[in-house]
Amino acid sequence: MGSEDLFHKRKAKSVKQLARNKSKRAPYDKVLIVCEGTKTEPYYFTDARNHHKINTLNIIIEGTGKDPLTLAQRAKQLYQEQERLGDPYDRVYCVFDKDEHTTYQQAIELIKKANPKTKWFVVASVPCFEYWLLLHFTYTTQPYYPVTGLSASKAVVNELKKYIPNYEKGASGIYSLLIEQVEMAINHAKRASKDSVRNATDNPSTSAHKLVEYIRTLT
Asked: What phi, psi does 32 have (nearest 5°)?
């Protein structure tokens, strides 16, 4: 079999698979969520998707284990692949922490320049995703900085353990566990966002609530 024949067969198979996926999807947005971590954030948003019984073909979640810039580049690659197939995502969310990443601002700028602009969203947490989880229990704008033997992210995790003693990064079922407090967390996150502007610092802050609110509109 020639390489040209093989190409056409593979293309035909992709077209058939695309048609099958379209027929099985629910009539709401097709969404891509690309996360920095391979466990904590993917597990959280997978749990949110499952909790709200959202079609798994409508929300696709990938954990990269990469720095923010590499994550953003991967998101663009995944978006372009589906666009070429004629079935682009309606929304793309890039989920990452500021922490001590040197490519944090570069990633934000890359996502801001991505087209079409109405489809791309940054979901950033400072210093880490656990700040969003902490807001389910208390409101705080205490900044977190690394000190000897303790990273800023670890400091947030230690604070969170006051409320979830057995919490560890990569824990599953966290969205469902905290579902009764999610409204409070959303309000706290919005308040923290306003305070971060007023205080001229993003430490701490999170926009995780925007993705959570969006997911809840799909149900």
From this structure: -110, 130
